[in-house]
Design a protein that fits this description.
6-stranded mixed beta sheet; 7-stranded mixed beta sheet; 10 helices
């Protein structure tokens, strides 16, 4: 009943090849003895195989003009031909979530092999790193994935969506550092899909060595019901349950008219633990009502000019966005007596003017990297060096007592973001620059970072252990539109402004925001990409470790700790980066990034180098 059969004598290879091209599968008929090399052939024409509907949901931050393509071994996925793959789609409202639906044959015990690629505007293809993805299908399904993360942990296969129509696929990315080996992080909430407040039945999230402390998971929620409230809970290996502190998160799925199901990306942070919390207490509380369909959430973000890899103004316990808001400590200690002991080193590249700038003060730091290509427009009055320098001067002004970003009522990361926004508004020079601004208040540091400059928070220098066990406990992530194309602030003269019509310029509101606790003895590094492109973190830690071991405890320091001079530390770090940048056979982080984007390069990256080193010390 599933196949058509016909028997035919095949005497010519060309004829059989033609028949195979027409969809006939040739097998030697059982019992047919060959005569003079000619056999009887049973031709089997497969009837149309049952097909399944598979929806692919991919989180990918692509550059303007690029799009995502799904490619795989089956003919339905293009048979690995880039011209025949399935194009995923997004909109200004739903970006960075890309979606596509494919119909794939039901083949028991056969894995569908596939992968995603970025079709760049210049015609090139950028394949995601890692091994090919594999998918075993037994029914209609939805695949939730993150571009470039091909491990099984980073992807979710949600099978069989029959009765939930319409549905909202909610993707969770939760940050939780409080787990131990054998523990599981769960999303537990008011809906049946989230366990109906039974932690044992909640949605289990997954992590792995390369992803921790980020946990991933997805669930399908029925639309049209009451708002869904939920909390994160840690199921301990010993059977106990630790609920996160604070009121429950809340979301209200609303169906989009454009598709049969919607997608929501939800990034949250596990905010402390409360082992004594009861289920009823988790259900209660004033809930923030968030819009939930992907186009509605993205529209809310778009009002603030925010999209992927950018934070929101939502409270820390209710980070619900496409943004990155990293908080490393569940409770912020009150260390109002802390300040920075800072030093900086700036090294110019061999040719041309140094376009880096920085500022240091008692409780704030900043670094800017002027975009060198702006020198092509010097005839129009553009100067990236002057623009970067004025950005830093304005940001420092905003954070001084009485400045627009000063005061104790706002979080540290809000002050840093406001200082960056003030600098963008008030700068008079024309040019372009990346920028990172850090503000510390009350034992908490907040960072606003735009582009590929960045920061590191290194802890362990104050430890009595020798040699000190240094660890990077916080770091920034570069914001890139594409290969070597960082986010950047820009101000153009009127003679050039009218020619920029292709896309919206980046602004200070596009920055990533970070917030974390600091303690005496912590080391904060701010730097331009000329530093981070030439030194690995392990090399940075080794230099700091050597400086600590060689420091003279009898030399004066603000807190009497004997920490090495931040100026000498900044000089040593900048010198090491400079040496690597001049080494034509060195393998540096810039080579890794180039390889990831399909380019081959060897040797250091020639660039301006700026490092700000700041010890966190007690004022007393």
């Amino acid at each position: 009943s599933e196949h058509q059969f016909r028997c035919q004598r095949s005497t010519h290879k060309g004829e059989r090849d033609w028949q195979a091209q027409q969809g006939w599968m040739s097998v030697l008929a059982v019992g047919a003895a060959p005569v003079d090399g000619v056999g009887w052939v049973l031709e089997v024409a497969h009837a149309k195989q049952p097909q399944l509907e598979v929806r692919f949901i991919v989180v990918a931050n692509t550059a303007f003009g690029d799009h995502l393509v799904l490619l795989g071994a089956p003919d339905e996925l293009g048979a690995w031909s880039v011209d025949r793959g399935i194009n995923l789609t997004t909109t200004p409202d739903t970006f960075p979530v890309w979606t596509a639906t494919a119909r794939l044959p039901l083949q028991s015990s056969v894995h569908v092999v596939y992968k995603f690629a970025t079709a760049c505007q210049d015609g090139t293809f950028l394949w995601e790193d890692g091994p090919n993805r594999q998918l075993a299908l037994s029914g209609d399904a939805c695949v939730v994935a993150h571009f470039g993360r091909t491990s099984l942990v980073s992807n979710v296969l949600a099978h069989s969506f029959p009765a939930l129509n319409p549905v909202c696929v909610v993707v969770w990315e939760a940050m939780c550092e409080q787990t131990s080996l054998g523990d599981t992080l769960c999303v537990v909430g008011s809906s049946q899909e989230l366990g109906a407040w039974d932690a044992a039945k909640g949605l289990s999230l997954s992590t792995e060595k390369g992803a921790f402390p980020w946990w991933h998971g997805a669930a399908q929620l029925k639309l049209g019901a009451a708002p869904v409230t939920y909390k994160l809970a840690i199921l301990r290996a010993n059977g106990s349950i630790d609920w996160e502190d604070g009121v429950a998160h809340s979301l209200e799925p609303q169906h989009s008219d454009n598709s049969s199901s919607d997608t929501l990306l939800c990034r949250v942070r596990f905010s402390g633990t409360n082992r004594d919390a009861s289920v009823d207490a988790c259900k209660d509380g004033s809930h923030w009502q968030g819009k939930s369909s992907s186009h509605q959430v993205a529209a809310l973000l778009e009002e603030d000019n925010l999209s992927d890899d950018r934070s929101t103004d939502f409270p820390l316990n209710h980070s619900f966005s496409f943004g990155r808001l990293t908080t490393l400590d569940p409770e912020f200690p009150d260390h109002s007596d802390l300040s920075f002991w800072s030093g900086a080193q700036r090294v110019s590249k061999a040719a041309g003017r140094c376009e880096d700038a920085y500022f240091i003060s008692k409780c704030s730091l900043g670094v800017a990297d002027g975009v060198g290509s702006m020198r092509d427009f010097e005839d129009h009055g553009v100067c990236a060096a002057a623009y970067a320098a004025e950005l830093m001067a304005r940001a420092e002004e905003a954070l001084r007592p009485g400045g627009v970003a000063a005061g104790d009522s706002r979080a540290a990361e809000e002050k840093a973001a406001e200082a960056l926004a003030f600098a963008e508004r008030s700068v008079t020079a024309c040019g372009a620059s990346t920028a990172v601004v850090l503000e510390m208040s009350g034992g908490v540091a907040g960072v606003a970072n735009l582009g590929d400059s960045g920061f590191l928070l290194i802890r362990g220098a104050a430890s009595v252990q020798q040699p000190p066990d240094l660890q990077v406990v916080a770091r920034s992530i570069e914001q890139q539109h594409g290969w070597n194309w960082p986010y950047q602030l820009m101000k153009l003269p009127s003679s050039l402004a009218t020619s920029v019509t292709s896309s919206r310029l980046d602004s200070a509101r596009d920055c990533d925001r970070y917030q974390f606790c600091v303690y005496p003895g912590d080391l904060v590094l701010l730097f331009t990409d000329g530093f981070s492109d030439n030194l690995y973190e392990s090399e940075i830690l080794e230099i700091v470790r050597v400086m600590l071991s060689e420091s003279d405890p009898t030399l004066p320091s603000p807190d009497g700790s004997g920490l090495p001079s931040p100026q000498l530390l900044a000089m040593s770090l900048a010198r090491a980066a400079l040496q690597h940048s001049r080494n034509k056979i060195a393998w540096v982080p810039f080579c890794d990034t180039a390889k990831k984007h399909g380019y081959t390069t060897l040797g250091g990256k020639i660039d301006d180098i700026t490092v700000v080193a700041a010890w966190v010390v007690a004022e007393s």
